[in-house]
Amino acid sequence: MNRRQFTKLLAGAGLLLAGCRAGAAPSSSTPERKDSMQTTTQTYTRTTPIETVRNDPVFGDYGRLIFPVERSYYSGDTLEQLHLTYYNNIDPDETVDICNTLRQRAADGQTIFYDIYTEDEKAADPDKADTGLFYFKGNPGAKFSICNAGGAFAYVGAMQDSFPHALELSRKEYNAFALIYRPGAQTACEDLARAIAFVFTHAEELEVDTSGYSLWGGSAGARMAAWLGSYGTASFGEQAYPQPGAVIMQYTGLGEVYGNEPPYACVGDRDYIADERVMRWRIETIRSQGTPAEIEVFPGLAHGFGLGTGTSAEGWLDHAVAFWEENT
């Protein structure tokens, strides 16, 4: 597929996602769990205002990127009240855990955020100032993953769709990054290509193994992971870097089949944005061509369930990690 064909594909994706925006279901939060998963010194709580986290001096300028820059796509004043457009099953305890983990690591002197563009590049294109990589470090020398949140290419829903995944992967000793990108299918893919280039060129500093890395994504983020996995970084303005060892995709109705990267996919059977039948067809087609591919469909779940804590999807990340390891 050439770049012109890909541009048409992106346009089609935009129309599809625009339709999703019109009929999105409201998001919901799960009740408080007594078995708190907090393992860090607790500074924030469920009742901490979102603005307190965003403006915490420990984060410097990048604190504004922890929650969506496009503020019309989220609601709620406190961490437990956070609602993200298109998302369901948001777990307040996970939100608090993520914020406390980021804060503790930053306070301990760890670098938890990296710019992917130079100051000159950001001056030439101010939208690039709202990009970067949050780093959830695992074991030095371990493989890495880049997690990409969805948001219909209108915003980046990282607190439900990439931060939780990156944190869990780091606790499994992998080095995980969560990308904050410019909304828009083309610009998002360019930012992911730059993020891959950044990790490869700074691998020694970041202490990561670049062999057999994985790309993760939910909804629009899953399309990004699939497109970069298939077309490669050279198709989006960077030099050519190795393809990922696996692509992990959640709830996206991408139907095109190209490339040979092994995909794992999962979706809920009540997802009215990403059709499970389209996802099944794609996985079955890829598998029929001799490439390893897996899909799980979880009962009772709508779009954007994230880690699926406390739902029928809980534990899917372990299956995805096993798939990644089996194929690298």
Give structural notes.
The protein is 36% helix and 16% strand. It has 328 residues and is an alpha/beta fold. Strands 3-4-6-5-7-8-9-10 form an eight-stranded mixed β-sheet, sandwiched between helices. The chain has a two-stranded antiparallel ribbon with strand order 1-2. Helix 7 packs across helix 9. The radius of gyration is 18 Å and the shape is globular.
Residue share in helices?
25-40%
Biggest sheet, in brief?
A: 8 strands, mixed
Q: Segments where pLDDT lies below 50 for 5+ residues? A: 1-9, 11-39
List how many beta strands DSSP finds. 10
The strand line-up of the biggest sheet is: 3-4-6-5-7-8-9-10
What is the approximate shape? globular
The rounded Rg comes to 18 Å
The ordered H/E elements are: HHEEHEHEEHHEHHEHEEHEH
Number of helices: 11
Q: Termini separation (Å)?
A: 26 Å
Mean pLDDT over the full residue set: 89
Beta fraction = 15-25%
Helix/strand structural class: alpha/beta
